[in-house]
Each structure stands twice: as C-alpha cells, then as structure tokens.
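How a chain folds remains the central question behind the approach discussed here. No coordinates are needed to read the tokens, only the vocabulary itself. For completeness, the protein is quoted in full, as a sequence line and a line of structure tokens:
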Amino acid sequence: MSFPRNTTVLIVGAGPTGLASALSLFHHGFKDFVVVDALVKGDNSSRAIVVHAATLEALDVIGCGDELVSKGTKLTRMDFDTRTGILARLPFDTLKPHTRHPYGLIIPQTFTEHVLGQKAASLGVTVHRPHRVVGMKVNADDTNLADITFEDGQVITTRYVIAADGARSTIRTIAGIGFADPKSDRGHESTTLAQLAPADVTFDNPELNNFTFRGVMSRNNFFLCASLPSTFNEYLAKETGKPCEDRIFRIACGAPVEEGPVPHAPSKAYIQNLIDRFGPLDLSSDPSVNPSGKGVCIKEIIWSSRVRTHSAIADTFFTRLSLNDSSKPEGAAILLVGDAAHIHSPVGGQGMNLGLRDAVFLGEVLAKHIKVTESIPVSEADHILTDFVAERRTRALEVIGFTKKLLSVGGMKETNLAWWLPISNVTLRDWVLWILGKVYYLRRQVIWNMSGLGRR
C-alpha cells in the first residue's frame, strides 16, 4: 500500500506504543501523521499480559481505558506461594484512594494492540503495511526534514519521526543513538532467571478456573500462571479461525541456563517438564505428586516462546538528524518510545506499561511543540522535548532498577547465609515474603510500585 510522500510526523511501528502515540496526537488535535509497520498484520503472540492502574489512567485520556477494561479480567489480588504452601496475598484494594482502577488488568498484549488498532481505525487512522524502514537521511532541499526510505523503494519526507519499532529499532540504529544496560548494581546473569520460557496453554482439567494469578517461589526458580480472559479465546478464534473452548493460561518459568538455551518455540513436553519441576504441586502431571491424586496435563500449546532477561536504555530519547558539520539544532526530530527507548526484565509486568505511558504523554508534548514552533525558533522550543525526554528517561531508569530488584528476589540462587548457620538465603527470603504478606504497609508498598502510580 502506498502512503503520502510528505507528513509532519511519521510513526514507525504499529504495536501498542505506536498506536497509542497516534491516538494521543489525534486526541490533542493533531492529525498530520502517518503510521507504518513492517509486518503484514499485528502479532498474535500474547507477550505482556498485565495493564497496570497508571497505564489505564493514561489510556483513559485518549478514550481507550474503558474498552480495554471491558475486554480484560480485573486482577484484584496477587498470590505468591512455595510449591506446597502459602507465602503472601497482595490485594490491590489499597489503591482505591488513589485511582479509579484499583486492580491490574489481565489482557494479552496482542489483544491490547487490537483494541488500540480498532480505536485508531474508527477515527480514520490507517496503518500502512508492510513497510520496513531501511534508510534515513537529511532531506537535500530542507535540512529540517528527513527522507525515510523503505524496503520497497518508497520514500516519505517528514519533520518528526517517532521510533516505536521495538528493541532492535532501525530508526535508533541509523540515528546513532547508543543502547546499553545502565549497569546498576544487580545484573541478570546473577539470577536463576537469565532465560524464561513463556507459553499460553490449556489444561485437561476443566476445574482449573478458581484463580487469576499465581506466582510460585521454588528453589532456584520462579513460576507464574495467570488465567487469561475468555474474550481472548473469542479474539483468537476470529484471527486464526481455530476456536478454543478451554480456558487459556499464561505460563512463564525460568529455564536453567546449565541445561542449555530454551528452544525457539518450546514444545508441550518442554513446558510440561518445567511445570512438573517448578510449578505448584496441584498443577503436576504426576498423580503421585499432585495432592488431588490426579495428574494435570497440558492439553494444547497455543503459543510458546523464549525470553532472555536483559536491560538496556537509549542514551537519549530525543535527537535531531543533523548534517555532520552542523552544530545547530536543525534536522528532523527523532523521538524514541517503548522498547526502542528501553527494555528490561518482564518480571513485574512493567515494560508495555511504561511504553504506553511514554506514548500517551509524548502525543500531548509533541502537539504542543509543533504548535509552538509556528511562532518561535526551534532552538527556543526544543526545551519542551528535552525536558520531557529527560523525565521519561529518569522514569525508565527507575523501572529498570525496580525490575532488577524483583528479578534478584524471584531468581535468587540458593546459598547458605554462613558456614556456621544452616539456613539458606532462599529460606530467609520466603520468611520475609511471609512477613510481607502479613504487614499492611509492606503489602501496600509492593502494590503501589507495581501499579506505576508513583512513577507515571
């Protein structure tokens, strides 16, 4: 599909952050933008599954919050256990004085993308597919513009580029913006969760419908199981033509590094093995281990993948594509959002949430910048963007630090506290989590940090 030869804003990437950027610009009265994506259609893998309160509030601003809530399942409590017993129950009701969304919303990322895409389409916004960016350079006639070249040879000239094209961002690479781990005091390789195997599965036990979220702290690993909303079944049936009547569950588990890399698309046997070794005993396929006396087996793998837990952040979220010999603030503006700007461990479900908030807030700021530059020089107006991206980068660094702390707790490698003390650090961690579950203030702090309300 061809697109306009010229636009004020080009949004590269039509995932959740790209679509939210477009919707935010539209909401703030700016419509001269073009959205492109390299894929023929959106991705059907579920990936992120939780939208937190601060993100729902941001999406409310652009008219998408209520629609998402209607499609998802409200997570009112997070349960954390050992394989055999209870550790902590963390309710979201402590958020009630602070938000109209005192819960986490369970909704797969692909479904979130679908809802945002439908909203954009209803406003007349077109996503041009498939168009893969292969080049970007300063326009020969006007150095304030950039020519973006696509794989099919088409070129679009633009004044602003929003890079929402993911962790391997082509725009970020061409712009020469560095992307590296900020090197905080906790790395990923020091945990047992250096690699994860996520999967969407159904089970052969129809009675497994009495929980929404379970996290299991086992020795040297962490296991998660979340029940996905039935609306996701309906969405998949429409998209794939294959109806699924059984409840779909998201499974995620650390895969021991010493056993080799996780397969590209882990099999049913591979995921079942992880559940049997690290999941709660009542999900074990072994009847002799399962307290019910009956094994629970995976019935079908809907989707499976692998994840390496690592963090990186762009050196800046805003630059200008100036000529090499130019020291003036000229050239098209390059702005990074979502995974193009920052990535980190999926523990805590913070990645997509931060990206969506970046995008919604960017739309307002960018519309303001475009308006202001109609009457004052770019050099005077650019503080609007530099101040904004400095704040968003600070938020991203906070989230990276937070997720690394969560990773170090969930993926703690078991060792004795001292040669003379026969207690392991994992045992101590479990005691601390048990206490955390009993103390209101501590429960509230965990949920507050998860919600994003303190770092919008």
